[in-house]
Amino acid sequence: MRLSASFSIDPRENWVIRHNREAREVLEAYSADRPIRVPLLTGEWFGQHGFYADESKLDYRQYYTDPETMLAVQLEAARRRRELPISDIVLAEAPERWPVSVDLWPVVAPGWVGCRIMYRSEAVIAHEGLHLSKADADAMAMPDPATGGLLSTTRRFGDGLRQRCDGMTYLGRPVGPIQHGVGTGGFFSLALDLRGEEIMADMYDDPEFAGRFLRKVAGWTLGLACTWQHITGGSTPVSSSGPEPMYVSDHGIDMLSANTYEEFIVPIIKECNARLGTAVPTALHHCGHGAHLFPVIKRHFGLTSIHALTWPYVDIAKVRRDLGEEVRIQALIADSIIQLGPTEQIRESVKEVMKARGHGGFALILGDMLPGTPLEHRLALYEAVKEFGGY
Predict the structure, then answer these.
(1) Alpha-carbon distances, residue 197 vs 95, 132, 188, 330 (angstroms)
(2) What one-character DSSP code corresponds to residue 226?
(3) What is the residue-wise DSSP string for 64-79?
(4) How far is the C-alpha of 125 from the C-alpha of 105, rounded, in Å?
């Protein structure tokens, strides 16, 4: 896959100059906590390349099996984001560096513990849960946190990316650092991958087993994080200068009641961070339906920011009332609304979100967009944010 030698738009064109002037003003004001308009932020997550995969007709099976393709797609997607006037990102300007990552998300942890991985040509990598019995869950031994299961593939990709990127530049800027991409969706999500939805019945029918198993899984995730935290070169884990904390974010928790979350999940997060000697981070990523848990999380851990609240699945106005003005919120409109449109529906959706935002720090996130999302709809989203997002 050949890399582009330049941006496909001219930074000297009037429309690019106007866009960049406004984007810089909006982003600087938002960062200084003196917003002039709600910004529409473009994520730079390494797995956020669906729009580019759609344009380039990417075969995802190649992306997930060939490090060279993975590197090229991430770089080309990062370039392409800087050519589309669909968010508050400075166009036709390369960043200081082009970071890249081994991108086997979201199957790294499930693949580590033995879930079957599914490679698909037109969609991202996926996995099947194990649905272990209680006896098998108790007997399961912790896989090697450096090479167990899919981690051997992760290390091979990391070595390949490091060798390819050594001294490499792209559009005049250095490529790197190379991130290993190892992590989990949270220990409860991993427990769901292993035990299935039965773990929620266990919390009522056999709470002793449920607590024991969740602590076992949480211990695995700590071992994974500590092993991979500071892999800076080659393929050998190196000692950490300081442990990463256990985060509150967990993709499976929205299926729990507030009482169950407080009984089973809160103590484990506290125990793990006490063992590490770390403070629980006060930022929460949550793209699910778990807003009923936010007051519990704030009470136990404090919250300063919430990322990726998806409207209309989450009542943003209620979240603001529950948490107060001091919590910064970054929200996004469901991808399906932007994909399906029509443009007037997109405009009305943005209008409703802006009414619901309340007072306090607030931003919208562009999201990755589903395959087949028309550029016209993405432009309509940005224009509506500019129309209704003023302060």
Answers:
(1) 43, 11, 11, 30
(2) H
(3) TT-HHHHHHHHHHHHH
(4) 8
Q: Where are the beta strands (DSSP E) in the chain?
A: 40-41, 98-101, 116-118, 126-128, 169-170, 173-179, 283-285, 305-311, 328-333, 362-365
Q: What is the 3-state secondary structure (H, E, C) of 376-390?
A: HHHHHHHHHHHHHCE
pLDDT for the residue numbered 239 = 45
User: Are β-strands 328-333 and 173-179 bridged in parallel, bridged antiparallel, or unpaired?
Assistant: unpaired
pLDDT for res 232: 52
pLDDT confidence of residue 1: 67
Cβ-count burial of 57 within 10 angstroms (0-12 exposed, 13-18 middle, 19+ buried)?
exposed
In contact, 382 and 40? CB cutoff 8 Å: yes
The pLDDT assigned to 234 comes to 42
The answer to whether the CB of 294 falls within 8 A of the CB of 320 is: no
Q: Locate all alpha helices (DSSP H) within 32-129, ordered by sequence.
A: 50-56, 60-63, 67-81, 108-112
What's phi and psi for 283, nearest 5 deg? Answer: -100, 140
d(CA 361, CA 38): 9
- State the pLDDT at residue 241: 59
CB 248 within 8 A of CB 214: no
Q: How far apart are CA 10 and CA 317, in angstroms?
A: 41
* Positions in the chain short of pLDDT 70: 1, 230-241
Helix %, strand %, coil % of the chain (to 5): 45, 10, 40
Q: Which of 144, 108, 115, 149 is nearest to 131 (CA)?
A: 115
φ, ψ of residue 43 in degrees (nearest 5): -70, 145
Specify the pTM: 0.93
What local confidence, expressed as pLDDT, does residue 238 receive?
Answer: 45
Cα–Cα distance, 104 to 112 (Å, whole number): 11
Tell me whether the omega of the peptide bond preceding residue 312 falls within 30 degrees of 0, making it cis: yes
Tokens 């409703």, residue? 352
Q: What is residue 235's predicted lDDT score, i.e. its pLDDT?
A: 40
Predicted confidence at residue 127, as pLDDT, reads 95
Return the structure tokens found at 182: 């190892």
The neighbour count for residue 380, using CB atoms within 10 Å, is 22
